[in-house]
Amino acid sequence: MYAERKRKRFQKEEVTFDEASRQAFLNSYKGNKKKKGKSTRESRTNKRRRRMDRRKELLGRMDG
Question: Where is the stretch described as Disordered (predicted)?
């Protein structure tokens, strides 16, 4: 993984971090992982579909 390689490179150069900044450094690479879940396009179409359903329901209620 990228973070692992980065960490090794820093170990070679013998850069000493104090514990807090070391954690911050390692955590900065954790954010780069791809988030698993629905693709944005999928959720967008679902949102649109829900909106249409709601609109139809309201119109139907008004007619009745």
Answer: 26-64
Selection from 9, 7, 12 nearest residue 29 by Cα: 7
Q: Which position has the token pair 């911050």?
A: 24
Matching residue, tokens 């955590």: 27
Report CA torsion sign: 42, 43, 46, 51: negative
Give the up-direction half-sphere exposure of residue 35: CA atoms within 13 A in the CB hemisphere: 5
Of 3, 49, 20, 52, the closest CA to residue 11 belongs to: 3
Reading the block at residue 14, the tokens are 């013998």
Which residue bears the tokens 């390689």? 5
pTM of the model: 0.29
At position 55, the amino acid (one-letter code) is R
